Amino acid sequence: MGPSGTGKTTLLRLITGQLRANGGALSVAGRDMRTLKRDELYELRKRMGMLFQNGALLTDLSVFENVAFPLREHTDLPERLIRLIVLTKLQAVGLRGAAELMPSELSGGMGRRVALARAIVMDPEILIYDEPFVGLDPISLGVILRLIRHLNDTLGVTSIVVSHDVREISTVADRVFLLSGGRVAAYGTPQELDRNPSEIVKQFVGGLADGPVPFHYPAPDYFGELLERSA
Amino acid sequence: MIGELRRSLVGAIEDLGSVTLFLLRLLSNTPRALLRFELIGRQIFNSGALSLVIIMLSGLFVGMVLGLQGYQLLRNFGSEDSLGTAAAVGLLRELGPVITALLFAGRAGTALASEIGLMRATDQLSAMEMMAVDPIRYVVVPRFLGGVIAMPMLSLIFCVIGLYGAQLVGVQLMGVDSGSFWSQMQAAVVLRDINQGLVKSVSFGIACSLIAVYQGYYAAPTAEGVGLATTRTVVTSAVVVLFLDYLLTSAFL
User: Fold this and answer.
1) pLDDT by residue (tens digit) across A216-229?
2) Taken in order B90, B93, B94, B98, is the CA torsion positive or negative?
């Protein structure tokens, strides 16, 4: 978690190898991300699943084909088995009945659930969620929230969720890392974070307008500028 | 002024280098992409079959204009029987490949650039990378090859329809002898003319498809970025096609 522009997405891109770090150390699943070659990175990504903020479904493929896509690209499984796996994953997100729909026919929440089914179709070890709650109505948000926790428990995967939503994260996360200004400002269980005396944590968790993260973008003196304009 | 000129020259050289590297990347992925011919087939349909109507209509009108102008000009020298030859040579060597390429850039090139650009803007390309699928191999190379294969076929269709257009005006309307029209054409058109058209259309196919997929792949992931990529595709393709046409024509002379 962390305020906007604090480096959450950048950190996520570093973890997934979409960006290369030019300093420090970064290890994912025991592999040094800074020295991985392209093929090795792709091999590692087969062990990861990622849910993008907007779902990022392939718009020219149906729901079924979207979920089947990683299986078709990386395995030689027979069609019957692919169908079985895809329907199982779609059933897990409650959208088996939407298998033949196109992405354009889905609501935002449904699209994200299909993307979640696609993210888990290869049975990954690490699941990464980039702002999974943005723009969802309360029902879809609740569904996604329960799915994240449920999939995490049943599949035994490591889940990394990037989010602004303090309340939602508190209900699913085992550990929370609060980023501010490109650094880890605080970390611990959601309860520990509640009790953290740091100003930045208080401002973020309490949703306060002003604090270490200023409400105003840096600007010249207010009255001075007003008088200058009117003069 | 001189500084600005220098900057734009350096920018142009950088762009050329970047496009060349991109082309090498496409070519290195081509052998593996060829194994998935169904992906390329779908793109030949998208770039080729869906451009057929505009190509055929344009071919017909260009052929008709060629018939009309050619007839008026040749009649001054009493050699209107050579209309078939003039139309065939003009279409096969120049008008067929060039106009097809310009139409292709406007119809299929813009579609390719905006499709790939939108895939970038909606994170579809990033999602593929996260699924360990190289978007260059899955998205870009099939579209590039589809365009390269479709262009000579479209150019050929343009020429054939154009010839019928010229015949329609020259023979049916202006009264040029049908036998002379076809036989003089048959006698004068040589394999070299067809080769010239073929080489040009393949070259234009490579250029237009490369420009379109390059602009789409590197488009800024915004509405403005995708719009800019489609505009650049048409403008750059038109200039490059006309420049290449001059180079290839002088090489064939």
Assistant:
1) 788 888 888 888 86
2) positive
